[in-house]
Design brief:
The protein has a single domain, classed as Roll (2,3-Dihydroxybiphenyl 1,2-Dioxygenase, domain 1). It contains three helices and eight strands, in the order E-H-E-E-E-H-E-H-E-E-E. It is globular, with a radius of gyration of 15 Å. The structure holds cobalt (II) ion (CO). The site of cobalt (II) ion has 7 residues, from strand 1 and strand 5.
């Protein structure tokens, strides 16, 4: 399975609005579109375009959001995950699982409308890795 392009860097934040203001002030960056809710993953998301990738700002949606614990440890927010593309999500999940990586859950539709899954940071050198099927051209 080839390691595909870096799709985005996930950054957890207590406030998407405040983070957008920061990126606007520092870099003149504007959001790709308005924030939207990903109910199944318990997060509110807003994407910021870069020429070669994106930033994915994620804010907890509800008190049982998986991002809540991260923000308890990192109250100002922080880098949460990196997302790599692969050509075929189920093949990637099977291969990483066979190599001993703890794969978190079944593939589900992510912020970009294609299936994703996460790999436990303990099996990826301390980095929470999101694997995402490349969008069809
Ligand atoms: Co992500």
């Amino acid at each position: 399975m080839p390691l595909g392009r870096l799709n985005h860097i996930g950054i957890a934040t207590p406030s998407i609005e405040r983070s957008l203001e920061l990126y606007r002030t520092m870099f003149g960056a504007e959001p790709h579109g308005p924030p939207f809710d990903l109910q199944a993953q318990g997060v509110r998301v807003c994407l910021v375009d870069m020429p070669n990738s994106q930033i994915e700002l994620i804010e907890p949606l509800g008190s049982d959001s998986p991002v809540v614990r991260f923000l308890e440890k990192n109250p100002a927010g922080g880098q949460h995950h990196v997302c790599f593309e692969v050509p075929e999500i189920h093949a990637a999940r099977a291969e990483l699982g066979a190599k001993g990586a703890r794969v978190l859950g079944e593939p589900r539709i992510g912020a970009h409308g294609t299936p994703v899954f996460f790999v436990h940071p303990k099996d990826m050198g301390g980095v929470l890795v999101e694997i995402m099927e490349s969008p069809r051209a």
